[in-house]
Amino acid sequence: MKRLAVPLTAALAAIGMTVSLWLIFVNAPLQWGKNSNDTLNMSSLFFNQKIFYFHVAHAFMLFASVFVAGTCSIAFLKTRNARWDDIACAAVNVAVLFGAVVLVTGSIWAKPAWGTWWNWEPRLTMSLLLWLILVGYTLVRQFAGASADRVAAGMAIFGMVGVPFIYKMVGSDSHPASGANGVVATLGPGMKGAFWLSVVSFMCWFIALVVFRVQSIRAARELRELREAALDAGVLE
Amino acid sequence: MPLDRVVIEKVGKRYGSERALHGVSLELRGGSMCALLGHNGAGKTTLLGILSTLVRASDGKITYRAGDQAVEGDDVRREIGLLAHASLCYGELTAFENLALVGKLYEVASDRPALTALLDRVGLDVRARDRVARTYSRGMLQRLALARAMLTRPSLVLLDEPFTGLDRGGALQLGEQLGELRATGAIVVVVTHDLEAIAGRTDHVAILQRGRLVFEERRPDDGGGYDYDALKDLYHRHAN
Amino acid sequence: MASIVTQAGRIAWKDLRIELRSREIIYTMAFFGALLVVIYSFAFPAKADLVRAAVPGMLWVTMAFSGTIGIGRAFDRERENDTMRALLLAPIPRLAVFFGKAISITALVLAVSLVCAPLIALFFNAPLFEEAPMLLLVIVLGSAGIAVIGSVFAATLLKVRSRDVLLPVILYPLLVPLFVAGTNATAALLTASPNIDGVLVSDPNFPAAWYWIQFLGFYDLAFLVLSFWIFESLVIE
């Protein structure tokens, strides 16, 4: 089962992404706006709206990883079992990449929607702040020497507890994806399926990457231990 | 509850993917001084950290015993006295203030007469006692640090390179005082490179090499223990 | 519990006594803060409307910068003679150690803010004192939050070589909600509107100020509880 985790989730992601690409670009309708007299016009987003399917899917994973890292870090500090720390670290590593995608696609959305590449729109700001915490975590892991795992775990936990405050801080918003009137709730019939399939596909992709990363972190550690054992036994120079 | 035995069983410690200690087992007894020897990075400091409860072992376990009873948590820490190359005292406080703070944290008598008697014992210059510790010489600081360690009447005394920075006379004098501590029945563990200062006072030698215990020996207690040549010989044979 | 508070009090009192004797941290932090204020006065044009808008930010940026420096130095002091090791070794609950440090550092950050706020008021002719009690409350809550999170991570980083750069890397992303809340509360207290003659007069927005004060209160409380719970696991290697 463990061996199959990466290929399985990666395969699911590949199939899901292919289908959702077709759904997004061929099946789903373009974004039309409505004039005051209820006739359709070409909204400012139109074709650009397509990036939404990727943006939101990545954002979900960014948020999820903050909680994964936080929870695993609590487990690590309480049990001091490095396996938990590996998961937290892997989730953050992958989420830093996903977060970068969120910020770039967010900018691409912002340009046609609001005429500027970056406008401190609340949900995008929140993504940026969470991403900064995760980048900080990565830096700590890299440069805090022997204490890196503890310090980074602390940062992940404090970051997780800070999420509701960041959420409150950015306030009510104009983001297309939020609220009952937001884009997710009002997605057209051809859009909804594409959207959720895309979310699930990217989730599979995220899980595949995280599991793969955990495995590589563990392999690196085992290799180092083997090397040490070999040094002690005098097999290696 | 004074400790009279510490049992370390297969203790290991890893920092991230580095292993600092592998399966070390050691038994420490009251009235005995254990010299923990080894090169830099051999794991001595880590083992001392684990003994002092400030480092959590990754594997294995360590039990503190007072007679038949196991002791845990705050009660263990109350029994630990630490003497390191750093003084553990605040430079901006006087000798009396430093000791009074320790007395309060440990809830032991720390009124002026009691502290005066203690400072007399370690021989800290009377004129210096109301000066801030920052102005002390290395030797005076060491006396203050010793007074600090003795104030709480520890039964497990951990020494982390206590001789560093002391001149020969100071080191030998400190060694003598440690011998006295040992005579009171305390468990003394010393990490040091200064074999001369502990010669004739230690009766238990443990040598670490790259995180493993490679040598351990106890000399039947006839007072003297290991002399300098014996320690040097053991160190050169096993630490490299 | 009583003993935790007493012991924390002893540790905090010890810190303050040391600081009162050397005055090193308070003098250098205050000087640094004052320098920042002088730099602001060159960096920002001194126009009446701009000043009202920028002053809250200046105050909180000053607190953030001088606070981090003060926290770093306060913990360096515990490192010099290995006294932190001695404190953690004392037979008192570890959270008394944390609480004591947090109290003394709150006092330090607070003292510096109380030096910088009047300077900002002076140089920018900002009406900071019109709502002095409320502003004091905001600053106290802000200082406490900075001190709580700062103490946890400064203590955890004590043995890390690159602690001076890592402390802000960890603190700033986590403290963003606090800075934003502090700035917003201050801004709400400084709100002005034109009177019938078109002259700007103070018109504090109390509901908004209260909202952000409560936000700060909850923020401090959440992280204080979290710190109590996690401090020992973080400082024990």
Number of domains of chain A: 1
What's the shape of chain C? elongated
Oligomeric status: heterotrimer
Radius of gyration of chain A: 21 Å
Unreliable stretches of chain A: none
Main pleated-sheet profile of chain A: 2 strands, antiparallel
Key features of this structure:
heterotrimer; A: 237 residues; mainly alpha; two-stranded antiparallel ribbon; 2 strands; globular; B: 240 residues; alpha/beta; Rossmann fold; 6-stranded mixed beta sheet; 4-stranded antiparallel beta sheet
Helix and strand topology:
The complex is a heterotrimer of chains A (237), B (240) and C (237).
Chain A: H1 2-27, E1 32-34, E2 40-42, H2 51-79, H3 82-114, H4 122-143, H5 148-170, H6 189-233
Antiparallel strand pairs in A: 1-2
Chain B: E1 5-15, E2 18-29, E3 33-37, H1 44-51, E4 59-66, E5 69-71, H2 74-79, E6 80-84, H3 95-106, H4 112-122, H5 138-151, E7 156-160, H6 168-183, E8 187-191, H7 195-198, E9 204-209, E10 212-218, H8 228-238
Parallel strand pairs in B: 3-8, 3-9, 6-7, 7-8
Antiparallel strand pairs in B: 1-2, 1-4, 4-5, 9-10
Helix pairs in contact in B: 3-5, 4-5
Chain C: H1 2-22, H2 24-43, H3 48-80, H4 83-89, H5 94-124, H6 132-156, H7 163-190, E1 192-194, E2 200-202, H8 206-235
Describe the structure.
The complex is a heterotrimer of chains A (237), B (240) and C (237). With 237 residues, chain A is mainly alpha-helical. Chain A has helices spanning 2-27, 51-79, 82-114, 122-143, 148-170, 189-233; strands at residues 32-34, 40-42. Chain A has one domain. The longest helix of chain A has 45 residues, at 189-233. Chain A starts with a helix and ends with a helix. The model of chain A has no long low-confidence stretch (mean pLDDT 81). Chain B is an alpha/beta fold. Chain B has a single domain (5-238), classed as P-loop containing nucleotide triphosphate hydrolases (Rossmann fold, 3-Layer(aba) Sandwich), CATH 3.40.50.300. Helix content of chain B is 34%, strand content 28%. Chain B has 8 helices and 10 strands. In chain B, strand 1 and strand 2 form a beta hairpin. The termini of chain B are far apart. The longest helix of chain C has 33 residues, at 48-80. Chain C is built from 8 helices and 2 strands; from the N terminus they run H-H-H-H-H-H-H-E-E-H. A two-stranded antiparallel sheet of chain C has the order 1-2. In chain C, 82% of the residues lie in helices and 3% in strands. Chain C has 237 residues and is mostly helical. Chains in contact: A-B, A-C, B-C.
